[in-house]
Amino acid sequence: MSIYNAEKRQKLMRKYLRQFDVTLKDRAIILQKKGFIFRFHMFQTNIEISFSECFECPLDCNKFLDFYLEKAELSEAEDLDLEKEDLLLLAHIKDILENEFSLDYEMLHSELKKRIHILKFGMIGFDQVGKSTLFETIDATPKKVANLINSYVKEITSFPPLFVKIYDYGAQVMENFISKTPAPLLLEKLRHFYLYIVVTDSTTQNVMKIKTQILPKLKRLSPFAAIIVLANKQDLPNRLSPQLIEKILGVRTYPISAIKSDSIDFFKKLLNEIILLRLEQMREYNCPFIESPSPSIKKRL
Ligand SMILES: Nc1nc2c(ncn2[C@@H]2O[C@H](COP(=O)(O)OP(=O)(O)O)[C@@H](O)[C@H]2O)c(=O)[nH]1
Ligand SMILES: [Mg+2]
Fold first, then answer.
1. Are 138 and 166 in contact (CB under 8 A)?
2. What is the pLDDT of residues 53-107, one digit of tens each?
3. Looking at the chain, which terminus has fewer C-beta neighbours within 10 angstroms, N or C?
4. Domain boundary among 103, 129, 151
């Protein structure tokens, strides 16, 4: 599509959209209905649906369900000069506003709520730096991640209603991620994380590779995700100090030796603190999807 065409299409769409109760933000078309936010994007064929309560909430959960636009009835009055895809998008907008949109709203509600309660943490780093050694210390049964070689997930369920999934990826997966042409499926799977735990063996070479090959990619993939660095193998000689690594990477860095029990305790405490902080933050912003904890849970925390 030429720039001229895109501009012309946008202009026409904007003109036509004036008659509807929608908000326009750049190329996004946002409408609220039945307790949900529907976000369309001009020239795209998907809708993102989230809870109305999440609209303009300062927390960055970024939880929505993606649907693809199916066929819709195009009325003859709407021929205009619009392209077929734009007419389809408009037809969907109209359907939603007029309650003609066929969607299982109950399913949508429960599915979205489930997503809001899930926090995804990813162990990221090159081969042999200690990711799996740390992952193994988490008390939960590992499950294989579908479609990814040598990759496992563990689920932490001791912070209801939050449900934390921690992922450990195999060497091939990480190789693919840092390659020039990572698989779209992998990028999709690595998106929307709450936290990336980047592990380094604390050598200069490894830290520099993280700086140039991993961090920029993670930031592009999930701009809202938190990132921490674990400066591992501090027991070995000639390792960079966590202070220096933090300075080089510009990311909060913690020193550890994954083969030592005090480091494992520290790692587990760190994860617990991060989960608790998130829970507190959600309560502070009165997230309606976080019920107040029962007295027994409060005591345990
Ligand atoms: N000396 C030392 N060895 C470690 C440390 N952490 C992990 N290792 C060893 O480094 C190797 C690679 O660890 P692994 O967890 O499989 O790395 P991964 O490829 O990042 O998952 C194993 O032999 C571990 O025992 C550490 O802190 N110090
Ligand atoms: Mg591993």
1. yes
2. 988 888 878 788 988 877 766 665 555 677 888 888 888 898 888 888 778 889 9
3. N
4. 103
